[in-house]
Amino acid sequence: MAEIKAFRGIRFDTKKAGKIEQLVCPPYDIISDEQRGAYINQNENNIIRLELPKGNNPYSSAARLYRIMRESGILIREDKPALYIYEEEFEALGKKYSVKGVICRVKIEEFEKGVILPHEFTLSKAKEDRMELMKATNCNFSQIYSLYMDSEHITTAKLDRLSLEAPDIELTDDEGVTHRMWIVTDEEQILSICGDFKDRKLYIADGHHRYETALNYRDYCRKNGISSVGAAVDYQMMMLVDMEHPGLLVLPTHRLVRNLPVFNPDTVLNSCRKYFDIVKINELDKIDLTLSDEYKKGHVAFVFYCAQSGSYLLRLKDRGIMDFVLPDVTPALRSLDVTILHRIILEKIFGINKENMAKQINLVYTKKTEEAIESVQKGRCQCAFIMNPTRVTQIKDVAAVGEKMPQKSTYFYPKLITGLVMNELSD
């Protein structure tokens, strides 16, 4: 099953590079050009210059900068192989959370081997970008986020014991999330933790693009004689978290429909009545509360919002209907809110096919309800579907049967910060 091991991570030498708070950043794909510039203005050594390079030759620029930072000692390599215990402490939805896992190297395997399993489809453009960056730098600047099953929570207990002392690194980011890291180099402790995974599968939570790119990069290196079987490129840096960790939080990703040549909200609602109970929501600030109540009751439900007609709760009348409507889909997948929305409404009623969705021609996404509503009110989009989050157990069930959810079905919050530790793909 999953093979994990310690590695000699690359980290900032803060004596030369500056304060760690000024060197890290959120994931590259949620950073605007304005934010990128602000990070660099604060500290020119910020990891964003490597993770999200710009310019006429961005990838060669990243490679050159990485080499300079290594040679100058701004980035240094761990003396001994280590595992990195990583914790995020944060507030969300009026509660305090803390989630903890371990960053390590994981041997990558094709999905069909059933060792590491995906749960979402990916977009090709993002994979092309990450591939070019890996070719240029031969380094992982950020972790793939994966989950594992551990009914006795044995590994989490070990991580908790090893992180009782003060962390080696600690910072609080601009969103108020506190990040802590403990560096474990004790060989016995490393062997104990790595041994826990010999019978486990891993479920990718976030980073599908990077994982598929890692497989492609490994194959590219082998084909071109750059590496052989068992080399460092056969392993990728991952953050592993117990699937039942109480700090895991999945937020929804809302759908926005735009640029349809023909759009009539009354036609949409009338077409939906065959499958959904439809309830008018008179106040926009009640949308999230209404959906939360439906989530707690275990209902399949989402909200349709259009500026002309207002907002409506769409609640599936009977899950059994989907057995006949979606006979080509496994029970695990057809029970998901996003599957039902995509197959019944976006595909059947709106005529937006999967290729269209993948290219984001008529369908785009947002994490915030207020952004979805504003986009419709200002005419940037024709309507919005406000969603409930996908449950963590549903992610496992879908991945376990070899299915994939639509893109952007899950949003694990908070994102892992980039720049605490990197994985150079060499031994």
Please explain how this structure is put together:
- The chain has 427 residues and is α+β, with helices and mostly antiparallel strands.
- It has 2 domains: 4-249 and 413-424, no CATH class; 253-388, Conserved hypothetical protein from pyrococcus furiosus pfu- 392566-001, domain 2.
- 34% of the residues lie in helices and 24% in strands.
- The chain is built from 16 helices and 21 strands.
- It has helices at 14-17, 33-42, 48-51, 58-72, 124-137, 154-162, 187-195, 208-223, 265-272, 287-296, 321-325, 331-334, 337-349, 354-359, 369-377, 392-400; strands at residues 4-5, 10-12, 75-77, 83-92, 95-107, 116-117, 139-140, 144-148, 169-172, 178-184, 202-206, 235-242, 249-251, 254-257, 276-281, 301-306, 310-316, 363-366, 383-386, 411-413, 423-424.
- Strands 1, 4, 5, 6, 8, 9, 10, 11 and 12 form a 9-stranded mixed sheet that branches. Strands 15-17-16-19-14-18 form a 6-stranded antiparallel sheet, sandwiched between helices.
- Helix 5 (124-137) crosses helix 8.
- The two termini are 23 Å apart.
What key attributes describe this structure?
single chain; alpha+beta; Conserved hypothetical protein from pyrococcus furiosus pfu- 392566-001, domain 2; nine-stranded mixed sheet; six-stranded antiparallel sheet; 16 helices
